[in-house]
C-alpha cells in the first residue's frame, strides 16, 4: 500500500493538469492512467489529432482551390494521405511526451494501469505490466472522462461504423461519408474528409445544426457549410441500418418519409456520456445524476469526504479547457486555497473553417429571460485584414444589457475567431461592458478590429460600416 496526498484517476486534460498543479503545490501526487500514453481522449483521439487533420486538409484545399487567387500557380496537387496521417500521429506524440515531461518536472508519479476506487480512498491498480498495486490517498480526484454514445443498431466497429477514434484514421478517402449528428465533432471531421475529396452527408435530428447556439451563428454556418459542399439534412431521424462488408445502408426518416442512404463509412457523433471506468458509484455510495454524471459542488467535491470529480464525468459542457480549470480548482481546494470557476465565462469553439467561437448567452436565451438588451454586429467583409487574406465570411456579434452595457454574450464566426474570442472572455471575467472593448485601441489592420467594431455597434457607433 503506497500512501499519497492526491490520487487522480485519469490522465486526460483534467487529470494531468490537476496532477501538475498538485505537484507545483508540493503535494505527493500519483496519476493513474491505463492507456499507453497520457493526455486522454483530447490529446490522443480528440482535440489534437482532429486539429492536425483540419490544418492539413485546409492546406490541401487552399493549394487546390485558392492559391491561384494569390498569384501562386501550383501544378497537379496530389494528396498523400499516409504522410498526412503520419504528421497527425507525430503531433499527438509530441504532446503526449510533453505531458510525461511535465510529470517528471513536477514530481508526479504515473501509475500505468486500470484504477478501481474502493472505500476509504484506496485505489487498486491493475498494472499494464501485469503487476497489481494499491494506493491510499488523503484525497482522490475522479477524472475518468467520457465516451462516445452508440446507436443500438450502429455499434462501433471502427471499420465501417466509426466514432471519433475511427474517423481519425480512415485508411482511404471515403467515396461517401455519412455523418450522424450535426454537432462539433460531426462538422469538424466531416469538414476534414470533404476537403480531401469525400462526399459528406450530415444528418441531424434537431431542426438545425449546432443546436443551442445563437440563431444568427447557426444560420450563417449552415449557409457557408452548404456552399462548401456539405449535404446537410436537419430534422432527420436515423431509424435503422444494415452493415455489409464494404458499405452501410442507413434508414433516415424526415416528415414521415423514409429513404435509405448508402455510404462506405458512417461516423456516429450523437453525443458523449460519462465514463465511470473503475468507479462503482452504488458500491461507493457516490452521488450521481439520472444521466449518470457525478454530482459535485462548486469546488468539485462529491458527497464522499475527500473525493472530488472533474471534467466530462461531471457533465456540463464537455470541453478540455473546462476539465483543466476544474482540475486546478479541485487541487487548490485540497491545498486549502480559495478557488472557483465561473462557467459564464467558459468559451466554446468549433474548428471548422470559418471557425465558430462563443461565450455567454445566445440572443434567444437573453430574450427568454425578459432582460432588456442591445446587440452589435460587424461583418468580416468590412474588415481590412480579412480582405487581405481573402477570408471575409462571417461576423462578430455582441449582446449587452440595455441599461448597464454589461456584456451578456459574444458570438463569432469567421477567420481566427478561436483566438479573437479570448478578448471577450477576459471582459466577461470582470463583468466588462461593450464600451470597455469599444474604446480599447486595436492594432490596424487586424482581425481583432472586427471585435472592436461589433462592440461599438452595441453603442450605435461602429466606424467602418
Protein described:
- This protein is 33% helix and 26% strand.
- The chain has 465 residues and is α/β, with parallel strands linked by helices.
- It has a five-stranded mixed barrel with strand order 1-2-3-4-5. Strands 7-14-8-9-10 form a five-stranded parallel β-sheet.
- Strand 8 (176-180), helix 6 (184-195) and strand 9 form a beta-alpha-beta unit.
- The longest helix is centred in the N-terminal third of the chain and has 25 residues, at 81-105.
- The protein contains 14 helices and 21 strands.
CA-based gyration radius: 23 Å
Q: Helix proportion of residues, in percent?
A: 25-40%
* Outline: globular
Beta-strand fraction estimate: 25-35%
What would you give as the CATH superfamily of the largest domain? FAD/NAD(P)-binding domain
Low-confidence runs = none
CATH T-level topology of the largest domain: FAD/NAD(P)-binding domain
Please tally the β strands and state the result.
Answer: 21
Tell me the count of domains: 3
Compute the number of helices: 14
Pairing-aware structural class of the strands and helices? alpha/beta
Largest sheet: 5 strands, mixed, barrel
Return the CATH architecture of the largest domain: 3-Layer(bba) Sandwich
Main sheet strand line-up: 1-2-3-4-5
Top-tier CATH class of the largest domain: Alpha Beta
